[in-house]
Structure to design on (1373 residues):
C-alpha cells in the first residue's frame, strides 16, 4: 500500500459533496475492502478522527473491513425476492460455498453477501455475481452459477461478438489486417499517437470485445491520438465519449454504419452506430 | 455537439433533431435496463446489430437501445415502431426474422404475445392487457429515448418545458404551475410539491441553496426510481433545472444508491452531455442562470431515505436523522437551505409544464392528481412497472394489469409502501389507490412498491422479514426504535419457530404502539406498520402458528419440517417410505404407510397428492417426486398382512359403545381406530354395502371394486359391527341411539345430494343428478345413460360421470358443458362456490375447501372421446313425451372480476343454441343430505353442512361428533380419512372424560435414515417416474383400471431423486433446520 494512492483519493474528494463516502468507496474499490492502514492514512490526510471514520465505515452496508474474495456474490433479499423464495437461494449459496453471508471462502475465491434490494424486483429471486445479474434464480441453478463464475464465464458478453469490416472514413481504404488475426479473425489496424511516437496497434474486429495487441505500453486512463495508418489522417472528431468525456475516433463500417472508439485507454465507451452511415461521416468535417 | 448559448440556438437544434426523427423510419427498440440486461437484452442487441448490417439495412432500419419499458416479465423484448409491434421473451435466434419482417413492414405472427383471456394474438403493445389500463406519462419517455443520447431526448421535446419556463422568465409562474397541478411528493410522504417549492423559494443564503434529487430508493420491492434514472435521466435533470429556476437553487445533487450502477452511469453520461450542450453550468442558454448537478453515491443505508439523514450522508457523515425543526428547507446541507424531491416527483415536472398543469390535475382524483408508478412484483403473472392515475382501484392493478395470480393460487394480499407500509388483504381490493385511502387501511403509498402475496406467502414470515430488515437498518439513535424493533423481531421469530404463545400477540401490539409514539424519525414511527397491519388482517394466521403450530403457506421451516409430511392430512411420512423404497425395504415402507393411513391401496389410486404439490423438488423448479405412484408400487407388492394392528384388551371398563353413521372413508377410519382402542363400534350404513364414496361414486377404472372391498376387510375386527340399509333420520334417530346405550356418535354421512339447475323439466325421464347416475351404475349395475349424453358441470363428479357414461353400451356421445373456461375447470368445486355466493362462510378445518387440480382426469376424458363445450350455460330443457330431447344453452364470455379475482361468466345475448340430447346429467356439485340432522337439533349451515368446532369435531349436541364431507362439503378421500383419524382421538378423550383439545405440536421428522449417495449429474438428468397407463383403445368400453404400477427399477430410481428434506431435522439437528440462516447473517465486520 503506498501513501500516494490514499492521498490522491483524499485530495480528489475532500471538500466535495459526499466527501468521506466517496473517499471510502474509492479506497474500497482500490483494495477490495477498507484496510486499517488505509483508514489511518485517510484520517491523517483528512484530519477526521479515526473513530469518526470507523463510524461511517460501519454505518453503511457497502463497506467491508474484512478482505473480500475474488468473486463477490450478492443474494438479493428484497421483499419481492423474499416472497419468491430468496431465503432458500441464500441458504443454497451458503451450502455450496460452505460459508455464511458476510464471509469469504478459505480459498479466497468467493465472498457471499446478502443485500436489501437490487431493484430487479420483477425478476426475483436475483443473484448478482461480479456485477452480472442472474434473474429468476432457482435452487437448482445455484451450482451452475458458481461453476460458471469459477470457470471465468461470468464476464458479460464474452461469449458472443461478431466481426466488422472497417474502412478509413477519409481514404475509404480497408483497415483490416489479415496478417494479424485476433481470435481467429482479421484485426483492425490503427496508428496510435502517444507521447510523440506513432506506432501501429491491432484491435479485435469482433464487436464488443475490444481486445488489443501491439502498440506502445500505455497506462490505463491515458488519452491517445488515433489515425489512419494508410492516409495518416486523424480519426478523431469533436464527438466525446459518453462514458468518460474523452475524444472519440470514428471509423467506417463497410456494411453502412460507423464505429466509434474511445481514445482513452481502457474505456469501453465506444459504440457501433447504425444511424450514422459511414459514408456521410467521411464527408462531414465534424458532427454537430 | 456545440455548446448552446441562447434559447434560439436550442430551438434550432431541436427543430433539426425533430425533423430527423420524424422520417418515420422503422426502429427496433430494445429495452436494456438492469432488468432487461439480466434477462439477456445484451444478446438481442448484438443479434439486431448483426442482422441490420448483414442485410444492409443500416439507415433504413434504426436500432434504439432504451431503458426499461416496465413489462419486465416479458423481457428480453423488442418493440418495433412506428407500428408498435411487441415481441415478448425474444430469443436471440429470432431477432433476424423480426428485423427482416420489420424492414418490410411485416410482423412475425408466431412470435406475438397471446391474450390469456381471449386466446388471440396481440400485435400492438398498447393493446396488451398490461398496457391498456395504464396511463403512461413518466414511463413513456423510457420507450422514446436512448438514455445515453441527449439528441433523442431533445427530439422528443426534451428540455422544451425548461426552455418555455426560461422564456417566460418568471420563477413564480413555475411554482404556481406545480401548485395548480397539485403534484404531491412521490417518495412516499405525499407532501405538496408546490408548497415546498414556495417555501424554499423564499429562503435566501449567501452561499447558495441546494436542490436534492432523492434517488436512494431504499424500499425493497420498489424500483421505479432506478428505472426512470436509468431510462430517462434527462427528464430528471430537466425537472431539477425547472425546480432550480423556480426556486433559485444554485447547486443540485442526485443522491443515488450504490446498488444501482447502471443508473449512476447513465446519470453521469446525461450530466456530461447536458453540460456539453450548455444546459448546466454558468449562464445556462445565455439566461444568466447558474446551476450544476453533482452525483453523490449512497453506501447502503435505508435510513438515508429520511431527509435529515440523507443530508448528513451528503455531508459525508453517518446517516443518523436529527430532530426537526429546523427543517432542511431552512437549514440543510452544510447549513444551507435544501429542498429534497424524489426522482419520480421531478420526472413529473417537465410533463406538467409540457402538457399543462390543468391537464395534469385532471388525471386522478381530487387531492391525488396525476399518475403514479407502481412496481407490481411478487406472486403475480405480469410483473413490472405500472403507471396509473391515482384513484385507480387496487383490483384493476392486480387483476387487469397484473393478470391475477400465478397458476391456480389466490392472491392473498398486497404489501405497499415497503418496510414502512402494510399488507392490504384481498377483501379490500376495491380500494382506490391514493395517499389517504392507503393510510386509512393501515398502509402507506411509500415509493410505490406493490408486492403481491398469495397462499404460499406466510404473513407472519413477512412481518418477521420486515422487522429483521428494520432492526438492521435502525440507526440506533432512539432507544425505542433500536430495542423495539429488535424485540418485535424476536417475538415474531419465536412465533415462526413454533415457540409463540397467545400473550405474544398482545405484547407485539403494545410494543408496536410504543415504538410508533416515541421515536423521532419516520423510520421508527412507521416501523410497526408491517406488524400492525398483518395483525389486523391476518390474526388467524398468527393464531395458526401459535395454537396449531402450522404454517399453511409452508414457509416457516420449523413448523413445516418435511413439506411432504406436513402437507399430508393423515400425517404420512412420505420421505420415510420413499427412503425405504430406495433401500429395497418394501415391507417396512408398507408399515410406515399403513401406520398412518388405514386405506393405503385406495389412497395409492385416488389421493389428490398434497405431498406432491408441496414437494421441495417441485417448488424449486424441478419435478416433484411421484409419491402416489411410489405408494402404489408398495401396496401392489406387499401383502397387507405385513402390518398387524394390535387391538387393545383389558381396558378395565374403559371400553364404551360408539355409533358411527356412514361407512365411507371417514366413518370406517373412525370405526377402525376406535375398535383398536377397545371400544365397541357399530357402523350404520344407508346403502347395502360399505365404502361410501369409494363404492358409489368413484369409477372402477380409477379404483377397482376389489381393492375397496379387500381394504375394508382388513379394517374389520371383533369390535366392529356393520349394519347395512339403516338410514339415520328414517330408521333411527340420535335420541334412540343414545337410548340404545351408545355413549358417543360420529356422523360421517358424506355429501350425496346433487345440486339442482333449477330449470323446468329437471325431473323428466332421462335427466339424472350425477350422484344418482353414478350410484345406479356403481352399486347396482344400472346403465341410465343412452344415446347422446350431455353433462352440465366442471367439477370432479362431472368428469367422473362423463367417463362412466362413455363406458355405457347405449351411449353414442358425451358432451361436457361448463360455464367458465377449461383452465378454471376443476380448481374449485362449484358447490363451494355456490355456497360462497350465497354468503355462507366456510368453516372447515383449514381454509376454504380447494380440490387440487385434476387436469389429468380431464385430459383422460378428452382422449377417450368426451367432447368439451366451455363458456356455456343451460337455460332450458326440451322434452318430448315426458323424456328429455334437448338442452337450450347460451354462450358466456368472461366478464368482470369478482372479489376473489376470478372472472364471472356473463351471458352473451343472441348466442343461444340447442343441443339434441337423450340423457342429461346434472353434475354441478353435491351437498350433504342434512335436513333430517337439522330436524334432530344439529346446527347446519345453508349449504347443508354440519357445523363443528374445527379443533374437536364436536357438534352442537354433546356426545355427537361429525367429520368428512358432511362437515366440509365434497372433499377428497384423504381429507375424509384425516377426519376419521381425528374423530378417534377426540371421541376416545371424550369417553375418558378428558379435555377434547390438546396442545398442538409441529410434526417434524424424527427417524434418521441414511441417504443414498447420488451424484449431481444423476440428480440433474433424472426425470420424474411416469406410471404406465392402459392405451385408450383398450379401455373405452370397459372398467379395467387405467393406471398401472411402476416397475421396481422405476420406483427405486425415483426414490433416489428425493431431496430428503427430513435430514435437516434428523442428521443435521434441529438447529440447522430452524432459523433461516441467511437472514440472520451479519453484513459487515
Amino acid at each position: 500500500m503506498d501513501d500516494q494512492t490514499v492521498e490522491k483519493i483524499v485530495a480528489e474528494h475532500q471538500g466535495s459533496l459526499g466527501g468521506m463516502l466517496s473517499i471510502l468507496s474509492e479506497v474500497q474499490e482500490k483494495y477490495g475492502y477498507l484496510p486499517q492502514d488505509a483508514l489511518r492514512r485517510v484520517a491523517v490526510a483528512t484530519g477526521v478522527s479515526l473513530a469518526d471514520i470507523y463510524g461511517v465505515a460501519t454505518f453503511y452496508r457497502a463497506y467491508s473491513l474484512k478482505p473480500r474474495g475474488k468473486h463477490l456474490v450478492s443474494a438479493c433479499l428484497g421483499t419481492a425476492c423474499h416472497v419468491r423464495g430468496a431465503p432458500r437461494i441464500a441458504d443454497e449459496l451458503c451450502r455450496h460455498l460452505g460459508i455464511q453471508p458476510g464471509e469469504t471462502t478459505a480459498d479466497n475465491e468467493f465472498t457471499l453477501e446478502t443485500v436489501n434490494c437490487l431493484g430487479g424486483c420483477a425478476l426475483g429471486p436475483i443473484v448478482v455475481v461480479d456485477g452480472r445479474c442472474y434473474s429468476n434464480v432457482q435452487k437448482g441453478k445455484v451450482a451452475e452459477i458458481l461453476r460458471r463464475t469459477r470457470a471465468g464465464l461470468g464476464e458479460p458478453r464474452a461469449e458472443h461478438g461478431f466481426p466488422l469490416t472497417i474502412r478509413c472514413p477519409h481514404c475509404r481504404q480497408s483497415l483490416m489486417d489479415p496478417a494479424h488475426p485476433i481470435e481467429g479473425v482479421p484485426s483492425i489496424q490503427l496508428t496510435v499517437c502517444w507521447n510523440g511516437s506513432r506506432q501501429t496497434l491491432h484491435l479485435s474486429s469482433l464487436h464488443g470485445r475490444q481486445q488489443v495487441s501491439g502498440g506502445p505500453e500505455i497506462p490505463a486512463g491515458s488519452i491517445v491520438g488515433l489515425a489512419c495508418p494508410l492516409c495518416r489522417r486523424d480519426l478523431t472528431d469533436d464527438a466525446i465519449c459518453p462514458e468518460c468525456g474523452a475524444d472519440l475516433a470514428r471509423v467506417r463500417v463497410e456494411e453502412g454504419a460507423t464505429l466509434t472508439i474511445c481514445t482513452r485507454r481502457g474505456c469501453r465507451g465506444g459504440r457501433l452506430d447504425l444511424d450514422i452511415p459511414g459514408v456521410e461521416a467521411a464527408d462531414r468535417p465534424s458532427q454537430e | 455537439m456545440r455548446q448552446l448559448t441562447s434559447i434560439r440556438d436550442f430551438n434550432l437544434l431541436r427543430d433539426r433533431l425533430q425533423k430527423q426523427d420524424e422520417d418515420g423510419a422503422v426502429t427496433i427498440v430494445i429495452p436494456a435496463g438492469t432488468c432487461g440486461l439480466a434477462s439477456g437484452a445484451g444478446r438481442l442487441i448484438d443479434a439486431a446489430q448483426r442482422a441490420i448490417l448483414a442485410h444492409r439495412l443500416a439507415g433504413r432500419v434504426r436500432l434504439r437501445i432504451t431503458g426499461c419499458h416496465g413489462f419486465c416479465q416479458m423481457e428480453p423484448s423488442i418493440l418495433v415502431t412506428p407500428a408498435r409491434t411487441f415481441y415478448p421473451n425474444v430469443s436471440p435466434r429470432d431477432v433476424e426474422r423480426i428485423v427482416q419482417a420489420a424492414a418490410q413492414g411485416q410482423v412475425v405472427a408466431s412470435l406475438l404475445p397471446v391474450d390469456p383471456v381471449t386466446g388471440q394474438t396481440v400485435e400492438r403493445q398498447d393493446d396488451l392487457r398490461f398496457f391498456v389500463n395504464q396511463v403512461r406519462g413518466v414511463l413513456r419517455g423510457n420507450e422514446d429515448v436512448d438514455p445515453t443520447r441527449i439528441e433523442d431526448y431533445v427530439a422528443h421535446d426534451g428540455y422544451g418545458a425548461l426552455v418555455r419556463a426560461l422564456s417566460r422568465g418568471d420563477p413564480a409562474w413555475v411554482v404556481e404551475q406545480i401548485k395548480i397541478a397539485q403534484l404531491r411528493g412521490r417518495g412516499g410522504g405525499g407532501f405538496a410539491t408546490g408548497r415546498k417549492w414556495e417555501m424554499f423559494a423564499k429562503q435566501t443564503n449567501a452561499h447558495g441553496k441546494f436542490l436534492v434529487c432523492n434517488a436512494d430508493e431504499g424500499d425493497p420491492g420498489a424500483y421505479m426510481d432506478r428505472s426512470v434514472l436509468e431510462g430517462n435521466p434527462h427528464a430528471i435533470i430537466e425537472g431539477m433545472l425547472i425546480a432550480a429556476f423556480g426556486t433559485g437553487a444554485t447547486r443540485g445533487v442526485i443522491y443515488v444508491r450504490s446498488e444501482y450502477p447502471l443508473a449512476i452511469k447513465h446519470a453521469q453520461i446525461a450530466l456530461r452531455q447536458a453540460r456539453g450542450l450548455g444546459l448546466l453550468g454558468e449562464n445556462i442558454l445565455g439566461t444568466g442562470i447558474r446551476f450544476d448537478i453533482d452525483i453523490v453515491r449512497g453506501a447502503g443505508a435505508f435510513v438515508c431515505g429520511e431527509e435529515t439523514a440523507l443530508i448528513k450522508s451528503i455531508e459525508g457523515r453517518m446517516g443518523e436523522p436529527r430532530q426537526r425543526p429546523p427543517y432542511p428547507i431552512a437549514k440543510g446541507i452544510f447549513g444551507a437551505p435544501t429542498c429534497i424531491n424524489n426522482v419520480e416527483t421531478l420526472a413529473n415536472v417537465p410533463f406538467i409544464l409540457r402538457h399543462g398543469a390543468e391537464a395534469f390535475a385532471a388525471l386522478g382524483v381530487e387531492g391525488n392528481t396525476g399518475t403514479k408508478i407502481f412496481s407490481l412484483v411478487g406472486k403475480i403473472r405480469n410483473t413490472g412497472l405500472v403507471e396509473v392515475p391515482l384513484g385507480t382501484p387496487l383490483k384493476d392493478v392486480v387483476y387487469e394489469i397484473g393478470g391475477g395470480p400465478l397458476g391456480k393460487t389466490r392472491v392473498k394480499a398486497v404489501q405497499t409502501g415497503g418496510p414502512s407500509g402494510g399488507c392490504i388483504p384481498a377483501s379490500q381490493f376495491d380500494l382506490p389507490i391514493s395517499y389517504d385511502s392507503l393510510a386509512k387501511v393501515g398502509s402507506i403509498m411509500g415509493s410505490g412498491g406493490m408486492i403481491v402475496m398469495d397462499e404460499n406467502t406466510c404473513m407472519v414470515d413477512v412481518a418477521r422479514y420486515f422487522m429483521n430488515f428494520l432492526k438492521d437498518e435502525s440507526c440506533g439513535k432512539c432507544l425505542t426504535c433500536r430495542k423495539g424493533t429488535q424485540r418485535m423481531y424476536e417475538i415474531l421469530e419465536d412465533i415462526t419457530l413454533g415457540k409463540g404463545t397467545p400473550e405474544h400477540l398482545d405484547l407485539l401490539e403494545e410494543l408496536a404502539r410504543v415504538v410508533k409514539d416515541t421515536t423521532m424519525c419516520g423510520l421508527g414511527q412507521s416501523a410497526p406498520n408491517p406488524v400492525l397491519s398483518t395483525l389486523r388482517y391476518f390474526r388467524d394466521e398468527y393464531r395458526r402458528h401459535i395454537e396449531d403450530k402450522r404454517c399453511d403457506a409452508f414457509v416457516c421451516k420449523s413448523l413445516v419440517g418435511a413439506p411432504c409430511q406436513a402437507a399430508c392430512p393423515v400425517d404420512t411420512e412420505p420421505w420415510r417410505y420413499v427412503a425405504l423404497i430406495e433401500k429395497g425395504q418394501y415391507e417396512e415402507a408398507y408399515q410406515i404407510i399403513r401406520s398412518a393411513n388405514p386405506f393405503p391401496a385406495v389412497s395409492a389410486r385416488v389421493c389428490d397428492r398434497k405431498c406432491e404439490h408441496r414437494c421441495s423438488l417441485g417448488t424449486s423448479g424441478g419435478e416433484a417426486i411421484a409419491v402416489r405412484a411410489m405408494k402404489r408400487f408398495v401396496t401392489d407388492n406387499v401383502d397387507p398382512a405385513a402390518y398387524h394392528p394390535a387391538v387393545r384388551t383389558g381396558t378395565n371398563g374403559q371400553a364404551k359403545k360408539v355409533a358411527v353413521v356412514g361407512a365411507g372413508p371417514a366413518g370406517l377410519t373412525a370405526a377402525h381406530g376406535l375398535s383398536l382402542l377397545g371400544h365397541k363400534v357399530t357402523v350404520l350404513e344407508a346403502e347395502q354395502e360399505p365404502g361410501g364414496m369409494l363404492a358409489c361414486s368413484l369409477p372402477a377404472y380409477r379404483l377397482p371394486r376389489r381393492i375397496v372391498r379387500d381394504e375394508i376387510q382388513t379394517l374389520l375386527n371383533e369390535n366392529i359391527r356393520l349394519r347395512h340399509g339403516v338410514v339415520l333420520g328414517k330408521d333411527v334417530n340420535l335420541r334412540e341411539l343414545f337410548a340404545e346405550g351408545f355413549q358417543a356418535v360420529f356422523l360421517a354421512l358424506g355429501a350425496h345430494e346433487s345440486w339442482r339447475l333449477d330449470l323446468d323439466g329437471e325431473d323428466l325421464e332421462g335427466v339424472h343428478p350425477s350422484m344418482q347416475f353414478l350410484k345406479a351404475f356403481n352399486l347396482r349395475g344400472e346403465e341410465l345413460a343412452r344415446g347422446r349424453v350431455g353433462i352440465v358441470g366442471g367439477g370432479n363428479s362431472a368428469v367422473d360421470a362423463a367417463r362412466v357414461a362413455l363406458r355405457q353400451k347405449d351411449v353414442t356421445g358425451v358432451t361436457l358443458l361448463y360455464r367458465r373456461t377449461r383452465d378454471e375447470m376443476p380448481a374449485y368445486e362449484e358447490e363451494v362456490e355456490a355456497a360462497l355466493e350465497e354468503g355462507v362462510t366456510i368453516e372447515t378445518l383449514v381454509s376454504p375447501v380447494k380440490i387440487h387440480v385434476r387436469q389429468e382426469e380431464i385430459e383422460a376424458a378428452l382422449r377417450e372421446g368426451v367432447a368439451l363445450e366451455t363458456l356455456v350455460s343451460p337455460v332450458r330443457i326440451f322434452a318430448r313425451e315426458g323424456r328429455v330431447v334437448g338442452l337450450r344453452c347460451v354462450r358466456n364470455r368472461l366478464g368482470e372480476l369478482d372479489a376473489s379475482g376470478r372472472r364471472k361468466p356473463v351471458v352473451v345475448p343472441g348466442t343461444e343454441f340447442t343441443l339434441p340430447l337423450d340423457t342429461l346429467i346434472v353434475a354441478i356439485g353435491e351437498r350433504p343430505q342434512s335436513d333430517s340432522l337439522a330436524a334432530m337439533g344439529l346446527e347446519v349451515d345453508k349449504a347443508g353442512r354440519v357445523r363443528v368446532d374445527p379443533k374437536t369435531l364436536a357438534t352442537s349436541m354433546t356426545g355427537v361428533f361429525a367429520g368428512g364431507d358432511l362437515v366440509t362439503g365434497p372433499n377428497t378421500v384423504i381429507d375424509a380419512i384425516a377426519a376419521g383419524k381425528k374423530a378417534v382421538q377426540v371421541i376416545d378423550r371424550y369417553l375418558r372424560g378428558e379435555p377434547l383439545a390438546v396442545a398442538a405440536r409441529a410434526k417434524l421428522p424424527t427417524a434418521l435414515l441414511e441417504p443414498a449417495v447420488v451424484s449431481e449429474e444423476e440428480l440433474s438428468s433424472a426425470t420424474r417416474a411416469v406410471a404406465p397407463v392402459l392405451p385408450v383403445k383398450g379401455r373405452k368400453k370397459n372398467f379395467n383400471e387405467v393406471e398401472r404400477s411402476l416397475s421396481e427399477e422405476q420406483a427405486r430410481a425415483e426414490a433416489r431423486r428425493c431431496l430428503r428434506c427430513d435430514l435437516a431435522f434428523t442428521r443435521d439437528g434441529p438447529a440447522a433446520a430452524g432459523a433461516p440462516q441467511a437472514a440472520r447473517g451479519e453484513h459487515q465486520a
Notes: The first strand of chain A starts at residue 71 and ends at 76. Chain A has eight helices and 14 strands. Chain A touches chain B through 86 residues (CB under 8 Å).
